[in-house]
Amino acid sequence: MDQQPHLLFVDDENLLHTLFERLFTRNGFKVTCCASAIQAIEELKTTTFDLVVTDFMMPDMDGFSLLGHIREHYPTTRVIMVTAHANVQHAVRMMQHGAIDYIPKPFTTADLVDRVKASLSKEVPESATAQSESKKDSPSGSKGKTSVQYIGESASISRLKSVLPRVS
Questions:
Q1: Of 35, 44, 50, 65, which residue is most buried, by most CB within 10 angstroms?
Q2: Domain boundaries, the chain
Q3: What whole-number distance in Å separates Cα of residue 72 and Cα of residue 17?
Q4: CB neighbour list of residue 119: distance below 8 Å, 6 or more residues apart
C-alpha cells in the first residue's frame, strides 16, 4: 500500500470528488479530496502527497496562491493546474511558477489519468523553487534555456504548443 502514489485533489465542485476518488482508486492511487485551497494547506501539513491537482478558480484562495504555497513549503511536490478559464498567458504563468502541467476543462477521464501518470514519472528538480523565484523577480522570465514538456494532444494543448514560440 505504501507504493501507491498519493494524490491530493483540490476543487470546490464537490461532485468531482467522487469521480476523482473512484477513477484514481481504480487506477492504483490513494486519493484525498479537498473543497478549498485552505483545506488543502491543512492536509499538506500532516500528509505527504506525490501530486496535487488543483482547480484555479476557487473561493477564498485561488489555485495560483496554493501553487505558490506548495512551491515555497513543499518544493518537491508536483502540481497540476486545472482550469475552465484557460488561455495561453495563464498557462505560461502557471508553468513559470512551478506547475508541472496545465489541463483545461473540460477534459476526458482517460486524458486526466494519462497526464497524472506522466506527471508522476517526471523528476522534480530540487532547484524548482530557485528557478521559480528567479522568474518571479523578472517579469519576462529568464532568457536562458527553458525546458517545458507538454503532454497531450487535445486541441487546447496543440494551440498552446503553436502559440508559445511566438509568445516567448
A1: 44
A2: 6-167
A3: 26
A4: 51, 78, 80, 100, 101, 151
- Please list the helix, strand and coil fractions of the chain in percent, rounded to the nearest 5, in that order: 45, 15, 40
Range 67-71 contact pairs with CB under 8 angstroms and sequence separation of 24 or more: 67/94, 67/97, 67/98, 67/99, 68/97, 69/37, 69/41, 69/44, 70/44, 70/98, 71/97, 71/98, 71/128, 71/129, 71/132
**64 contacts 21 by C-beta, under 8 angstroms:** no
CB 80 within 8 A of CB 51: yes
Q: Mapping DSSP to helix (H, G, I), strand (E, B) and coil, where does residue 164 land?
A: helix
Tens-place pLDDT, residues 87-132 = 788 788 888 888 999 988 888 999 999 999 999 988 765 544 444 4
Predicted TM-score (pTM) of the model is: 0.72
Tell me the residue type at 122: K
Q: Could you tell me how far CA 65 lies from the centroid of its own chain? A: 12
Phi and psi at residue 89, to the nearest 5°: -60, -40
Q: For residue 93, report the phi and psi dihedrals to the nearest 5 degrees.
A: -60, -45
Q: Which CATH superfamily is domain 6-167 in?
A: Response regulator (3.40.50.2300)
